[in-house]
Amino acid sequence: MAAGGGGGGIADEKAPAAEAFGGHLEAAEMTEAEEEHSGVKSRLSGLLWHGGSAYDAWFSCASNQLFYGLLGSWTAYLISILYLEYRTRREREKAADFRNHVIQWFEVLDGLLGRHWRNAGLAFNCTFLLFGSVIQLIGCASNIYYVNDRLDKRTWTYVFGACCATTVFIPSFHNYRVWSFLGLVMTTYTAWYMAVASLVHGQVEGVQHSGPTRIVLYFTGATNILYTFGGHAVTVEIMHAMWRPQKFKAIYLLATLYVLTLTLPSAAASYWAFGDELLTHSNALALLPRTPFRDAAVVLMLIHQFITFGFACTPLYFVWEKLIGLHDCRSLCKRAAARLPVVVPIWFLAIIFPFFGPINSAVGSLLVSFTVYIIPALAHMVTFRSPQSRENAVERPPRFAGGWTGAYVINSFVVAWVLVVGFGFGGWASITNFVQQVNTFGLFAKCYQCPPHLTAAPPAAFMPPPPPMAAAPSMPPAATAFNATGLFFPPLPAPAPAPSPMINFFLRHHHRGHHGRHGL
């Protein structure tokens, strides 16, 4: 019994041990299976879902810009069709004389759909162009500051507000030929300079490519792209300046494709080199080292921004002239003097809200959404809603778009998408970001996002005199307090390289403040 009992006790002791050992084996097998499954899941997640590399930024930039570029091209096409429809109807009635009259978007809506549509189009379009001009003026001050920081950005805004006011002397878009060509050349140089300079500079130490870490940042960036491809608020005025406006249909698409060759390489290269630092710098030029090539890019963008200010402001000049009854006046001086009050609120708003990036986002979500996406799509559907209007249409939708049915489907998608994503989520994100900027920097910010200057040395009365020291023969001469090479481009301190020859050439031949900036 004792023996038997002892044997039973040993067996009873070994049984739990065996079960525990088997359990460990089973648990180990399950752990290995879970780890294998988890590894596959993480690899799939990393491949399809979770990413923050420079390649992810490239994909996001390219897909968003292509998508909104196509949407913008479609609605620009709709605006051109509605313009041709309106003008053809007026000319058939023989009640129109457009020799001294520039047709505008709100007049197209008025002639096709009535005064309520006119009022909505006028309100959104004028407000958008007003803040679009404000953005160009802010860009002028932002760019020139990175060449000469002796004056703060607010003071530069005063200077370039006066410079941009000279656009009142440009009568219409007929007179922008040389300016448009120069603006395109300048933009091309700056975009490719940023791409090449970023690649040559290489990645900064500890660069991170986390992308938008919050949903607010994602939709803020998306609405910036919405604004970028919403430049066809002046489509009607540009078409009216053409001798054959029927040829405009594909122009905006071709222009968009060219712009993509500028924005995608420069955006991808800058983000690859500087990563998340771009989140706190509205002007990417601020991150590139000062060289003659960078100074040239800044100067060219100033001139380009002056041209862009004129493009955005000229339709406002037309509206104001029509309001006060001077649109048909033949005297350029009278029209220029009458246009000056339009510049004053633009100047004032640029001083109050010097937030370049946040204003871009807010304008894109709240104004561009309706001005150049939702209203044109809705107007096209309502104008051609009846079978008779579709039968007598000056131009029908292309076959590759599905004819009238396809056009209605595309228009419905544009309205729904931009209303929900652009105006809804984008509006929430842009307003949130804008309020944060106001809370951080305040209104009338003297120098928005300016790098801190070194603290001045204490007065000499509180410092012991330095010991006498013989001057070394190789020591460079002390820098003078003021060098008269020009107000805009002062020399750097002695150890730094001298200003570029191009800048000196620019100063010798251009004594007045030059203009503008392009937000990249």
TrEMBL record:
UniProtKB keywords: Amino-acid transport, Membrane, Transmembrane, Transmembrane helix, Transport
GO biological process: amino acid transport
GO CC term (a single one): membrane
UniProt KW Transport keyword: yes
Amino acid transporter transmembrane domain mapped to chain residues: 62-419
Domain of life: Eukaryota
UniProt subcellular location: Membrane
TM ranges: 66-84, 122-144, 156-173, 178-195, 215-238, 250-274, 296-320, 340-357, 363-384, 405-429
Protein name, per record: Amino acid transporter transmembrane domain-containing protein
Species of origin: Zea mays
